[in-house]
Design brief:
With about 350 residues, this protein is an alpha+beta fold. It has 2 domains: about 10-40; about 50-355, 4-Layer Sandwich (Glutamine Phosphoribosylpyrophosphate, subunit 1, domain 1), CATH 3.60.20.30. It is built from 10 helices and 12 strands. The strands form 2 sheets. The chain has an 8-stranded mixed sheet with strand order 4-3-2-6-5-1-11-12. The protein has a 4-stranded antiparallel sheet with strand order 7-8-9-10. β9 (about 320-325) and β10 form a beta hairpin. α3 (about 70-90) runs antiparallel to α4. It starts with a helix and ends with a strand. About 50% of the residues are buried. Bound molecules: aspartic acid (ASP). The site of aspartic acid has 15 residues, from β1 and β8. Aspartic acid binds next to β1 and β8.
């Protein structure tokens, strides 16, 4: 009996040690992987065959009547192309992360928008880019800021999320990381378009030396973003930008700040913001929207309006946001002249709009 007892207790001891070291291995060695693993093991909720995509190409912009019809058409065509790209992924059962990344890549490559090629220029006449992406299913996020040689910053942000244990990489470190990941590097001049150079020269001519001036409303627009709900009920958000014309070297806006310009959580919503970044950071806009829904049960459209029209409106903070909730309801509020935007749903409803 005695010897059996000894055997039993040492067996238990060995077992305890085994499980303790297993637990330590996961907690200390791979805390983030364990979190992702748990989320991945959750059964897919399913979404009764519904998907939704919402995109933006920046708030601010010209007042109605100041853009030529051709120019308006160019913007609407690109927004529609972006919607088609993302819709195809979602309709074929693709995931929301792939949809938002693909859409944002497309808009980054399009010189009309203030992201990737066509980004606005900082006080030194250089494009410094910020981007972020967030997965509402796992709660994981990635971001890059102040990068000057990464062709598609949002893809670098996704690599930060998926290939590192960090959330944000900035400047040189982000650029080296992106190159090591095989992402396409470009010369900084790739981003500069004649139109942005012209805006920068106009800004420079008016800028007071030593004083950081605020760019005109129409020079601020063009940031791009996408939010999506896929067939499995998973939400994702992505945002990419050149920031604001004449911004100080090293200035980082709200777009790559998780909870300010970009946020996604499966049981509330996915959000991408655009506008005067400093206000969006101070008001933690994207997370605020999710919190209003989570804690007060506020519908997404009402929460969006409350933040953009009331809260930011009272602070004279210009901007807007796009959001989709877990049931596919959307919000696209803006308090500026215009916000390039659009949405598409599995129901067949779709729209691209400016004013
Ligand atoms: N939110 C961006 C920033 O402040 C700019 C914009 O959306 O227009 O960097």
């Amino acid at each position: 009996m005695k010897s059996k007892g000894i055997h039993c207790s040492s067996f238990l001891k060995i077992n305890r040690m085994f499980f303790a070291s297993l637990l330590w291995f996961f907690l200390a060695g791979f805390p983030l992987s364990a979190q992702v693993k748990q989320a991945l093991e959750e059964p897919a909720k399913g979404n009764s065959g519904r998907w939704t995509l919402v995109i933006h190409g920046g708030a601010g912009g010209p007042a109605r009547g100041t853009m030529t019809n051709e120019r308006e058409k160019d913007y609407l065509d690109k927004l529609n192309e972006a919607l088609q790209l993302g819709s195809k992924i979602l309709a074929n059962g693709g995931n929301s992360l792939d949809a938002v990344e693909t859409v944002v890549n497309f808009l980054e490559d399009c010189p009309l928008f203030n992201a990737g090629r066509g980004a606005v220029l900082n006080e030194n006449g250089k494009a410094e880019l910020d981007a972020a992406i967030m997965d509402g299913r796992t709660g994981m996020a990635g971001a890059v800021a102040g990068v000057t040689t990464i062709k598609n910053p949002v893809t670098a942000a996704r690599a930060v999320m998926e290939k590192t244990s960090h959330v944000m990489l900035v400047g040189k470190g982000a650029e080296e990381f992106a190159e090591n990941q095989g992402l396409q590097p470009v010369d900084p001049s790739y981003f500069i378009t004649p139109e942005r150079l012209d805006s920068w020269e106009k800004w420079k001519a008016k800028a007071t030396p030593g004083k950081n001036s605020t760019p005109a409303e129409k020079e601020k627009s063009g940031t791009v973003g996408a939010v999506a709900l896929d067939l499995k009920g998973n939400l994702a958000a992505a945002t990419s930008t050149g920031g604001m014309t004449g911004k100080m070297v090293g200035r980082v806006g709200d777009s790559p700040i998780i909870g300010a310009g970009t946020y996604a959580k499966n049981n509330t919503c996915a959000v991408s913001a655009t506008g005067h970044g400093e206000y969006f950071i101070r008001n933690v806009v994207a997370y605020d929207l999710s919190a209003l829904m989570e804690y007060l049960g506020m519908p997404v459209a009402e929460a969006g309006k409350r933040i953009i029209m009331e809260k930011l409106g009272q602070q004279k903070a210009a901007g807007g946001l796009i959001a989709v909730d877990k049931d596919g309801n959307i919000a696209m509020p803006f308090n500026t002249n215009a916000m390039f935007r659009g949405f598409a749903k599995s129901t067949g409803e779709h729209e691209a709009a400016i004013y």
